[in-house]
Amino acid sequence: MRQVLVVNVTRMGDLVQMGALLGRLAQEWPGCAVDLVIDRRFAPVAALLPGLREVITHDFHELIDESRAAAKDVVALYRELAEWVRPLVERRYDRIINLTFNRASALLVGVIGAPDIRGARTAWDGGVIINNPWMAYFADMHHFRRINRFNLVDLYALGGSGPGPFTPLTLTVGRADHEWARRVLSADGHERMEWIAVQAGASDVMKAWRPQLFGRTLALLSKQWGGGFLFLGAEPERSVVAQVLQAYREAGGRNPIRNELGKTTVAQATALLAASRLLLTNDTGPMHLAVAMGTSVVDLSVGHVDFRETGPYGPGHWVLQPELDCAPCGFDQVCAHHACKDRLQIDQVAALLLHVLGQGPFPSGIRGFRVYQSDVDEDGLGTFKCRAGQEPADVAWHASFWRRYWYETFTGVQSKVPSPEMPSPDVDEARSVIEGLAPAVERACAAADEVVRAATERFIDVERLRTLQRSLSRERERLVTLGMSTMATRPITTAFVRAVQSDDMEGLGQMARYHARAYRRWKAQLVHVGQAFGIGKQGEAETPPMHRYASTAVQ
Question: What's this model's pTM, rounded to 2 decimal places?
């Protein structure tokens, strides 16, 4: 029997988003045993995931805190962790899938060991290496996130297993929790009432819509819809919900309210979401719980949230994204205005909610934001179709191009998603950069080969080798700056940078050969991408398929 270990110790939503991966593993290896390592705080969520043999918990946050505070000496901490890990080592897993991209998880995975490790692991010198091209893509996509079109759910499934049919998110909730939810929502004579669940809080204020706007939207909706509003969330969000309710009442809202904030277990909250007509939410863990229970979601995607990455997965959901050049902003960016939140107009949000409830047409005249409807594309992956507003033409073109490129490169399977219409809006800029970059990278390949020769001589001329390496390093900096200047070359330039900075080779000769291969791969990718812009098409028949440029252990 095949055995797989999944390591995922970050957030609640990340666990729910593993659903497609678990389904794909069952398709790839029928009857395989899948174990899951999580932080102890997320055990209630993991208990709802189907298809697991065992959930293995540890207080990783306490471990990190003790390490930082030096509460225990390093030897004691190591011995405790080694004792905890020993049973996992003895199981001899066939595959480990590490979905946590940090040094601690990489060390853990390296200690447990497996012939097939996907995700972060430790290198021979203690650094972090990312195996599997999909996992490396996930780590890199923040450099080009505006043109990314892969949902985290699909990246987990593709990287941890491989391509396959669409697999929806699923959770298993017991009958007792469903019965409890029914009693809660039918109390006080509300047996036949429909409920909209509302998640007004978020783990980060940057990705939360303004409480007053939530309240005024619900009040406006209550004038045209007779159902109730169910508030869910954690206890720290109580002040946020209080502001929502105050704004709701001041704006004339009179519909029934159920405030279950901080009162439910994870299973009970999930059962309440399953019984709700829809969920109005920020990008949160409960959003993924609702998706997994088949409840429609209206996702308010503001701040640094990119719904393409973490939005509601699969058909039947809606996303609102502000139309701003800075949206979504970077994770490390400090925003002084939060203007994106004011772009979502309450009358239009209320009209969209009515439409999703089946009580009104799709709103017309939407301004200030885009509306997307979730779906499944021709390759069986999650996607979003723009229903109102318009994406910048160059962004849309490159997003479509790179979606096909990476799928075909990493899977070796021809994508069924239609190619973008030619030419791209920025074709002149793209051609200029590629025509300048490609021959320069070819010269860099020759220089890298010269470094290989110098590093593998029987008697190494150290000074000459250093001179060659310094010269190549200076040229690389120039080429990377040029490659990052346009959407036509930024993704493959990012992949190249990861390769040369994350080598896992011992010895000068092996390292030099590895870097030379990275340069040649970059060159080959530039040739292929250039053909999409009409560069070198006469040699197209001699160019290998995209997937030949993929590395099975991208680093």
Answer: 0.92
